[in-house]
Amino acid sequence: MDHRAELCTRIEARSAKIGIIGLGYVGLPLAVEFARAGFEVVGFDVSQPRVDQVNRGESYIGDIPASVLTEHTGSGRLRATTDFSELATCQAVSICVPTPLRKTRDPDVSYIIAATEQVKKYLHPGMLIVLESTTYPGTSDELLAPELRSTGLEIGRDFFLAFSPERVDPGNRTFKTKNTPKVVGGTTPACLEVAKALYETTIDTVVPVSSTRAAEMVKILENTFRSINIGLVNELAIICDKLGIDVWEVIDAASTKPFGFMPFYPGPGLGGHCIPIDPHYLSWKLKAVNYNARFIELASEINTQMPNYVVSKVTDALNSVQKSVKGSRIMVLGAAYKKDISDVRESPALDIIKLLLAKGALLDYNDPYVPDLHEEGIELSSAPWEGRLGEYDCVVVVTDHGCYDYARLVAEAKLVVDTRNATRGAAGLNVVRL
Hints:
By secondary structure, this protein is of the alpha/beta class. Helix content is 39%, strand content 15%. It has an eight-stranded mixed sheet with strand order 3-2-1-4-5-6-7-8, sandwiched between helices. Strands 10-9-13-14-15 form a five-stranded parallel sheet, with helices on one face. Helix 1 runs parallel beside helix 7, helix 5 packs parallel to helix 6 and helix 11 crosses helix 12.
């Protein structure tokens, strides 16, 4: 039987059943798009509360309105389960599980391995498996392929294996799953053909590459590019501070060049699910071939030290008004790693808060998207800021949420340390910028 042709036919007819393993910020939007394209979609997750929320049409992902989720769960096109045996009824499966770093900066691929073991149990002829989790080049070939081959089925003939990196940007109102080009690489040409056929039903633009390794490297390049350039501009901010130059003015002026320059902006450090983590996958992988990824390591070193630099600016600012950090009332505005979202993963705000608490600050934070912080060393709830700015010795802007009134901040606060240039244009002498 020609499983490739049969699967492509089922995909085109929308009669293929799609399984999504992992219903987080990548998996749930992808599941919604497949349901919108007319497929029956089953989401798999180990969290029963999360599964229950999906089945009730309650969205926990900011980019997916509850009304959109309810439309697809209500029609029966999308449902969720913790029962992985239902993989046996799926013709295509996307693995969208987390890939964090261990404290030793080694990739933690345990979630990928666990998902692969579940797929292996229910692997059948005519099945497509696509890994979307960000990982190091070679993961598909070295981890997934041997496990799945051990069933006796042949890749490219009996079943199909591909890699397609997620490109989710939480809070981005322009680019969503559907209109963000999708890179796809297959283990064999037949694998690429089937995976490309699947995504073309759902994504506006599909970009094929020659192999899973190339596709895995694409994602690493994208985030390493950002990490290194952010590291460069963060170091530039420190240099400009030492030379008495406004780094924001320099960047704005350089940005007028119509070629050969792309603006990046300094900040309190890196946060989120990708940029602080993904380059280390490549750095770790290269150690196996006795190569030191120096740019990656240096950028990481600079970016990781930015919370300490911010705290030093707060310390200097308080010293300038004859105050010490210890005993000073400090308000941190923003806990999420970027504006207008609730995600605190790897957020530099957490490090800044911990450092200020360790120095004896009497600290509050405000974030309308993050009502509570229960992190190692932090047990805080978001405190109101409106009408209270004058009560604090210093206000530190860490996340530039659009809901904050920065003109009012400058007018009412005694002292502001702005890490995002959110108070641009303000003439207040009480503002210290990064």
